[in-house]
Amino acid sequence: MVRKGLFGLILIMTVLTGCAFLTGQGLERTLFSAGYYRAILDEIDGEDLQDYFLAVEPPELNGRQLRIEATIFRTLVRITGEEWLREQAFYAVEEYLLFVTGEQEELVIKVDLLEHQSVFLEALKKELGGLCPDLLDEYGPLLLEEIITRFDLPTELTWIELDSKTDLDSGFKEDLDRINQARTSLRLLPWISLAVMLVTGFLWLKPGGTFIALGLGIFLSGVLYYFIWPAGWAAIVVPSVESMAAGQDFLELIWARESHIIYSITKSIINRLSLYFAAFGVAVLVFGLFVEGCSRLSRGPLSSRKRSS
To answer: What pLDDT is stored for residue 65 in this prediction?
Structure first.
């Protein structure tokens, strides 16, 4: 009776531990994964990418009458190809992840203008050609050279610059701290729980029974998580994201336009993770049945010899 109760307890604890483990892995493979953001960026329309860049105008241009620099940035965003915009966005994401995970203390993201200066000058030439074609025909390259010299066009612009996390919006920082705390807990607690269940199981259920309980629990948690995580997304993730994005025009814009893409990619990752976990549970269950079968076979001859003696 005690063995059956302990078996049931380990089974329930394994299901709960498995769901916690999958939640932690889900965070690692989405919110804290550069590949996740790369997949999202690959799905975003090029015109939307332009809007997002323009929505986060470099801080050195905000609140000042730097029309030339602002024009350079906006023109660069509008005339460069989608691939360059995606690469710049992905570079920003990688730097941001290093910043929020504490791997680097400050966040500085620069936009290289020198690399695309020729493209920009060609666009500027077209603009000037529409405004004063006679002047451009007469002076041509000399006029463009004079513009570059006169206005001292920069070779790079600082897009985002934060010295520390204290520079983040207070509400956004609090939400981020809670996510990091949850991430830390979900990386440690499942392994502690597993260790306790292994020790307890080996003492009372022996290896075969322990692996059967663990395998069945892992399988059930994988199947259960496959069906219940969308409810958690609607009840927890969506309100959390909306809370973090509140007052952040840039984040609100992305969420309003791309939430369906974000959900679709998240669904693919979480469902695949759940199915892999369930399959692993089946493997552990089969191993447990094998160990238990071997154990019973080994006990059989011993009990027969005892009866014959």
So the answer is: 45
301 Cα distance to chain centroid: 56
Q: What angle do CA 154, 91, 178 make, to 5 degrees?
A: 120
Residue 205: how many CA atoms within 13 Å on its side-chain side? 28
For residues 119-141, give the mean pLDDT.
61
pLDDT of residue 35: 94
DSSP label at residue 246: T
Task: Report pLDDT for 174.
Answer: 86
74 close to 101: Cβ distance less than 8 angstroms? no
Which one, of 22, 49, 29, 25, lies nearest residue 278 by Cα?
A: 22
- Identity (one letter) of the amino acid at 142? L
Q: Do the Cβ atoms of 72 and 120 come closer than 8 Å?
A: yes
Q: Which two tokens stand for residue 105?
A: 């203390």
Mean pLDDT of the region 283-292: 95
Phi-psi region of 299 (alpha: psi -120 to 50; beta: other; left: phi over 0): alpha
Contact 22, 219 (CB under 8 A): no
Q: What is the Cα–Cα distance from 276 to 207, expressed in whole angstroms?
A: 23
Report whether 54 contacts 249 (CB < 8 A): no
- Model pLDDT for residues 19-68, shown as the tens digit of each residue: 999 999 999 999 999 999 999 999 998 888 888 887 776 555 554 445 55
> Which amino acid belongs to residue 121?
L
Q: pTM for the complete prediction? A: 0.82
* Helix H or strand E encompassing 107: strand 107-112
3-state secondary structure of 209: helix
